[in-house]
UniProtKB/TrEMBL annotation:
Domain Orotidine 5'-phosphate decarboxylase as annotated: residue spans: 33-246
Entry keywords, A to Z: Decarboxylase, Glycosyltransferase, Lyase, Multifunctional enzyme, Pyrimidine biosynthesis, Transferase
Pathway: Pyrimidine metabolism; UMP biosynthesis via de novo pathway; UMP from orotate: step 1/2; Pyrimidine metabolism; UMP biosynthesis via de novo pathway; UMP from orotate: step 2/2
Family membership: In the C-terminal section; belongs to the OMP decarboxylase family.
One record GO biological process: 'de novo' UMP biosynthetic process
Organism per entry: Aquatica leii
UniProt superkingdom: Eukaryota
Residues the record lists as binding substrate: 39, 61, 151, 210, 230-231
Active site: 92, 94, 97
Shown residues in whole-protein numbering: 216 to 474 of 474
Taxonomic placement: Eukaryota, Metazoa, Ecdysozoa, Arthropoda, Hexapoda
Protein name as annotated: Uridine 5'-monophosphate synthase
GO molecular function, one term: orotate phosphoribosyltransferase activity
EC number: 2.4.2.10, 4.1.1.23
Length: 259
């Protein structure tokens, strides 16, 4: 088995996590393997962006804590936009604490992440307790992307850490939607989804260590199933058009990969 050559449609049967199956279905319906990183700091900007790029994305990735004017009612509006355009809400919280603390961070506070984000990210560094905490939370459809590699320069993650993270993902396959990484890993596990950030039209970097690969490279060489694009879209003059362009390029690159 090689997930890289397998159509998304055939991978649904291998999904142990409900959200990953749901996500594959959305990707197929919308012909989109694009996740937007909606890293904006004003609520109006976030809602506008979500509504504009909505038709072209499968996932909206948020950092809800960067909003300067967050109020709890924002969540219902965001949920409505997600439903209107058929994409999932994905909070990139990168949980990394002991289980008890993650339980509080996931369910409590002003953001009440578990009440709206069907997918969250988590580090594997603190061990199983964190995943047990998320698993034990009483919202029923939930998924986690575990971080096995990062796109940033000088990351301290090494190969052993990456491999142990994949093992953890497989051990928790009912909860884990997939893995965030930069290389074609776990190719023999088609039920797990590879999410890859650090994507723009051209390879490059920013001035704070972010490193970008092109659409073709991430899809065809690096094994991405879903690409995360932030500033490549958010800083363009027409985010909707830009998202549509990324969507088409990413989908074509996927089709070439499974040819
Ligand atoms: N992100 C990365 N790289 C990583 C991980 C997460 O860029 O390795 I893990 C997040 C950070 C940001 C988005 O929200 O993905 C990328 O945004 P830009 O396309 O604007 O760089």
């Amino acid at each position: 088995i090689d997930r890289l050559r397998m159509p998304y449609s055939e991978r649904i049967d291998y999904c142990k996590n409900k959200v990953s199956a749901k996500l594959f279905k959305i990707m197929l319906e919308k012909k989109s393997n694009l996740c937007i990183a909606a890293d904006v700091t004003a609520v109006s900007e976030l809602l506008d962006l979500a509504d504009q790029v909505g038709p072209h994305i499968c996932l909206l990735k948020t950092h809800i804590d960067i909003l300067e004017d967050f109020t709890p009612d924002v969540i219902q509006t965001l949920k409505d936009i997600a439903e209107k355009h058929n994409f999932l809400l994905f909070e990139d919280r990168k949980f990394a604490d002991i289980g008890k603390t993650v339980q509080l961070q996931y369910n409590k506070g002003v953001y009440r992440i578990s009440s709206w984000a069907e997918i969250v990210t988590a580090h594997s560094v603190t061990g199983n307790g964190l995943l047990d905490a998320i698993k034990g939370s009483d919202n029923d459809t939930k998924g986690v992307f575990l971080l096995a590699e990062t796109s940033s320069a000088g990351s301290l993650i090494n190969g052993a850490y990456t491999q142990s993270t994949i093992k953890m993902a497989l051990q928790y396959n009912e909860l884990v939607t997939g893995i965030v990484c930069q290389n074609p890993l776990f190719t023999e596990h088609p039920g797990l989804i590879q999410l890859t950030p650090g994507v723009q039209l051209q390879a490059g970097k920013d001035n704070l260590g972010q490193q970008y690969n092109s659409v073709e490279v991430v899809m065809q060489e690096k094994g991405a199933d879903i690409a995360v694009v932030g500033r490549g879209i958010t800083l363009s003059t027409d985010p909707a058009k830009s998202a549509e362009n990324y969507k088409k390029l990413l989908w074509n690159a996927y089709l070439k990969r499974i040819e």
